[in-house]
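Exam revision sheet. Question 4 asks you to relate a sequence to its structure. Input first:
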Amino acid sequence: MKIQTSKSQIYCPVAAVRYARVLYEVNVPAEAVQKTREIFSEVPQLHDIFVNPTIDLKKKITVIDKVFPEEIRNFLKVVCKYQRMDLIEDIFAAYDRYCDAVSYTHLRAHETDSYLVCRLLLEKKKKT
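Answer key, structure tokens:
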């Protein structure tokens, strides 16, 4: 599935998009998501541990409990349990895109008639 970000277009597996939607819908704070991202970035060996099939799930869960913010632990445990940690970067990219889309939709839902008319006139002006 193609996801467009502000920087470029990327392709995310459908599973990553679905996990990203769940991550958003279970109301994990954005700060916890960002902190988790930073941890993966600073310690790339974590990714190797989580995708390694020879490491027991219980050990992986112990690492999750010790390393990651509490608000995101259950989500990571599910991703790990279903052996989808290989998608974690795609999940984060899809999460960003999903948040942007939801924010835009939320803003548009609260437009008043006068703002809507102004926005439509501005869009029309840009086209000409």
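Marking note for examiners. The longest strand covers residues 2-4.
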